[in-house]
């Protein structure tokens, strides 16, 4: 694990934690926390689980080795932390397989990090219905760590645990569980931060795609109303799973699919 402190780190109270699978995921799922740290009396901590060695490569990065790619992506992630003025960046540097297999030591690392920030109010993680296996593993590990601490009374101020969309949109979620995150005004900082991930944007234009998704969400969120925002993310409310020791993510999936089916059949 590497602990990186940006030179101009935001030293306000850490109220937001972002737990992401890959170097650039955190800037997609956590853009609300990043933007808020500039506008409110609070700061954020970013935790990245994997080393990013297995990413696709094109152009100037086509022949880069796994070892060198790890270094390139780490440098990009640190640059993002500098631009976003994160309070702290934790690079756990595990393999994707370790995350997918949910190694207990990763959960334990998350527990120890989260313990350091008793003022946490919001935690942004991947959503459990993501198409990317590593993202799902990251979500499960995060939930396991959060549930353990919550049950012990260590996260007294925690009010939101949000599973944010990346590799599968969440516009289909029933309203009971769907959370809309207004990111209007965050596009400037988002574009600046996402632009540093050159190795990733060269293979896929994540920087453009994530911004355009938020624009599309804002447009198609409500069919009979004018836009109330210009940028919008969807997430699933995971606090119910955190608070109920007997509830798991599979239960949440069943509930959402049942409600979704009822919505669809009602209109047929």
């Amino acid at each position: 694990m590497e602990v990186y402190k940006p030179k101009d780190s935001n030293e306000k109270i850490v109220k937001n934690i972002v737990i992401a699978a890959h170097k650039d995921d955190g800037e997609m799922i956590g853009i609300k926390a990043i933007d808020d740290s500039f506008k409110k009396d609070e700061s954020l901590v970013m935790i990245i689980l994997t080393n990013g060695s297995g990413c696709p490569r094109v152009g100037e990065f086509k022949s880069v080795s796994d070892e060198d790619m790890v270094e390139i992506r780490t440098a990009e992630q640190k640059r993002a932390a500098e631009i976003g003025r994160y309070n702290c960046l934790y690079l756990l540097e595990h393999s994707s397989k370790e995350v997918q297999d949910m190694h207990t030591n990763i959960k334990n690392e998350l527990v120890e990090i989260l313990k350091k920030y008793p003022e946490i109010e919001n935690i942004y993680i991947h959503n459990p219905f993501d198409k990317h296996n590593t993202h799902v593993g990251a979500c499960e590990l995060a939930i396991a760590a959060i549930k353990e601490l919550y049950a012990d009374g260590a996260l007294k101020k925690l009010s939101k645990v949000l599973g944010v969309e990346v590799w599968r949109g969440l516009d289909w979620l029933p309203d009971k569980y769907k959370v809309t995150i207004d990111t209007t005004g965050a596009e400037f900082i988002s574009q600046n931060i996402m632009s540093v991930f050159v190795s990733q944007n060269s293979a896929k234009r994540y920087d453009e795609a994530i911004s355009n998704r938020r624009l599309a969400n804002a447009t198609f969120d409500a069919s009979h109303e004018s836009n109330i925002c210009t940028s919008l993310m969807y997430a699933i409310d995971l606090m119910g799973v955190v608070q109920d020791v007997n509830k798991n993510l599979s239960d949440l999936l069943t509930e959402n699919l049942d409600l979704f089916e009822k919505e669809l059949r009602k209109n047929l």
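Residues 2-180+234-266 form a domain with the Rossmann fold fold (CATH 3.40.50.10320). The CA atoms of residues 52 and 70 lie 6 Å apart.
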